[in-house]
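Can you please make up a whole protein chain along with its backbone structure tokens because I've never seen that pairing?
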Amino acid sequence: MNKKKYSQVNQTLINQERFPFLTEKILQQSFFIAYDRNEKIVSQAKKMSHLFILLTGKARIIQQKPNGKNLILQFLEPGDFIGELTVVKAEETPKDVIAIGSVNCLAIPLSVVEDDLMTGADFPKFIAKYIGEKLLLRMEHFSNAQTFELKYRLAALLIEVAVNEQYSENNTQIADYLGVSYRHLTHTFKFLRENGYIEKNQAGYLIHPTKLRQLINEGNEA
């Protein structure tokens, strides 16, 4: 983890048109934090202290079950928040959020969020809209599980989570996330590999995004 003040980093990473609440006052009280692959951005064992905005890279949200099993709840991409449910008092104990590849975040102290952002009218509306949109995406995820063949859903997920066209996820967790058996997932990976959509390598799979998108389009047209 590499933590820097706003004045010490490339400020072009901030899209103030997308996040109009990020005024100079807010940014001067915030931090840029860089995380390495598989490094925890948030830990379930620690109380949240910041609201994060994912600026570059990807991450996964993991829930640790009492039986020791780790479940993937969601994947995050640039523009996503981490800790928004804590901000609106909907969640006291956070989930683990783990970097997929290198990740850069803007970290806004919760005290700043509560004293400056939540006291105005614009930010609460912004965060409510964001939470609503993520809920709709989650509903779509479950709907697709019932209507689309696994090969199409897996193709979309490979594009979503791959870093530099490299997929290296835990397939036991991915099977749970997609709601299928590990055996079914393995057979689908075999189909994709034998038909030239992906290539097996030491780290997992090298994906071919153009071919995978063609496959997804076939599923949408079927």
In short: The chain has eight helices and ten strands. The chain has a mean pLDDT of 91. The radius of gyration is 19 Å.
